[in-house]
Amino acid sequence: MAKINIYPIGTPKSSDLLVGTSIPDPNTNKLPKTKNFKVSNITSLIAAEIPQGVPGPAGQDGAPGANGSNGSNGSNGSNGAPGADGAPGTNGAQGAPGADGTSISILGTVANCAALPTTGNTTGDLYILDAADGGCSYGAGVEGDGYVWTTGDTWLNIGPLRGPQGVQGATGTDGAPGATGSTGADGSDGADGSDGADGAPGATGAQGPQGIQGIQGIQGDQGDQGPRGFQGATGATGATGPAGGVNSVTAGANVAVSPTSGDVIISAPNAIVNTTDNFGGPIVVNIVCLTSGQYPPPTVDGNTLYVII
Q1: Can you tell me the mean pLDDT for 180-208?
Q2: Is the pTM here over 0.85, yes or no?
Q3: In angstroms, rounded to a whole number, what is the distance separating the alpha carbons of residues 60 and 57?
Q4: I want to staple 286 with a disulfide (CB 3.0 to 4.6 A). Which of 49, 74, 193, 304 is the partner?
Q5: Please, how many CA atoms are within 13 Å of residue 197, restricted to the half-sphere of its CB?
């Protein structure tokens, strides 16, 4: 079974020893060795390898101490006789070996004091602080300070341990182009557009043909010739009979008659009237029949329907 020694925490002296591994020079066949190192040598090495931090501000002067009391004057002693030379002293016994020092293992960096692990640590484990942390519970630290795990199971700030920043490495080469992505799926159909505005009113249609002219009225019959007189003696010439003609004509709907006897004139300007269509055009009042040679007439009536026969 391994023996575990627990050592108290003390204040280090420059003559104290630490146990560490001595790494041989490069390109040699020597192996690393475990050796004792003085604390003074470690601090000298740290001072040589790691840049010194910025000195802190000077502390305030302490208050003046109280004046000491005057000592009493001693009495004058008598001169004694010279003593005989003493025999040479014997060498003292060799002291007990000192306790093994603690080696330091640098494990990496932490962003701040809170990132220091609190479990699973081994005495001598050391982390370097990546950024200043003035509120660290293990002791305020600046960037580059080292925190070492002690035998008291706590972290101890041992000061700056970080060297100067290294030279920036060369820029890496560009990576190969990535593979072409697959074609995306078709998008869904867009919504129907809104109804367009109403179109402008259409042009007015051409005028319809002239209506058919009304039928000529019937001419009255010739009047009957009066009876021939008996030839007798030459007598007086008989009276002339009344002129022949229509005694009377009865007017009908939309038919005008003037006069009612003699040469009768019949007019029917409104006998044929368009009352059924609703296209809003002119009203047919007259219907006139024409040959193709007579059409168009000299004057076109908008309310007359012309029929070519």
Answers
A1: 76
A2: no
A3: 9
A4: 304
A5: 3
